[in-house]
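Dear colleague,

Thank you for sharing your sequence with our group. We've completed the structure prediction you requested, and as agreed, I am returning the results in plain text so they can be pasted directly into your records. Please verify that the sequence below matches your submission; if there's any discrepancy, let me know and we will rerun it promptly.
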Amino acid sequence: MRSLHILAILLAAAVLQAAAQTVDVVTIDATINPAIADYIGESIEKAREDGAVCLVIRLDTPGGLLKSTRVIVTSLLTAPLPVVVYVSPSGAQSASAGVFVTLAAHVAAMAPGTNIGAAHPVGMQGAEKDSIMNEKATNDAAAFIRSISEKRHRNVHWAEEAVRKSISITETEALRDSVVDLVAPSVRALMDSLDGRSLDVNGATVVLHTRGANIVEQEMGWNHRILNVLSDPNIAYIFFLLGMYGLMFELYNPGAILPGIVGVIAIILAFYSLHTLPVNYAGVALIVFGIILFIIEIKVVSHGLLAIGGIASMLLGSVMLIHRESTLDMVSLSWTVILAAVGFSALFFLFAIGMGIRAQRLKPFTGAEGIAGEPGEAITDLAPEGSVRVHGEIWQAAARTGSIPRGSHITVVSLHGLKLLVDRTD
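Please find the predicted structure tokens below.
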């Protein structure tokens, strides 16, 4: 009887201990970029400070930057507490860069209806030199994923095939081929399945007690949300063009203030975004050169040659802007954004600004400049002063030389106050 009493006490203590445990959960539903890498690193540190049993990363990503992927993998391999990467919810994917992240976790899990794979590096196509660069990038990525798989005792052959042949599999196939450790429909079910599992964390054996643990959802802070949005190359590209336009408006209209302020802010944000991306600065130079050609086309008659050069320069610069060989997938400019931006820029400079500048060059219609050169008729003798009719209006006028008889045709030379200086034209 006493033994049963002791056993009941021990069971109650175990239940209380499990209930006191917490599990931090973060959600990554974006491409892998520097902001996401920084967020995962901070989440691991926060989970350690909070005393969490483990950190669960709920993952759904199409890919991302290779450099940021390496940073995340390093954070996972050296994490001071168990990290679980859970590909979720149903319909989610762990593609390209996500494969490296998933395999680097202490525990890799997937929800029903998810897939993993297609980790071939994205490179440029065509020339022999590009083929050599592609092969080098592929071999490097294959060695990287082999080392991760060996470290975590996962299917090394499949991991290399995912890089070299870009294969992709479902969650049931991944579990069968020892690519992931578990398939679970929810985080709570995942925690129940992990209870009692022993893990190697930096050389130390850690036994998970996660059944009934308190699950704490950690939301991404506003700073990481903003940085994540700015890390999108399409956003960086749009900010860059807006900044250029704003600065040019300010130069064309000194004192307008607002275009200059907007332009400077947009340029600063664009430079931050470009700093986080693998930017080819030859592409930036070509974009700027294209805009300059549009401006010159407005001022120089080239019969459209400068405009064609500007369009070609902007297109080439936009395509070259991101180093594709530095990415694993999904980090590139959208063709829709490129074509829309180039088309808008061409139309805007050639028509909107062009019409404005041509309007400034037109002969004035009012004031002293507007009346100079206009024809009229002398309605009195000008000897040398008298009255003339110009545009149906009667003006006091003076002949510039000699006298002008009544009824003669005259041409206005200039306006002085309210008196015209005229010449006889017949």
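Summary note from our side: The longest helix spans residues 335-361.

Kind regards,
the structure core
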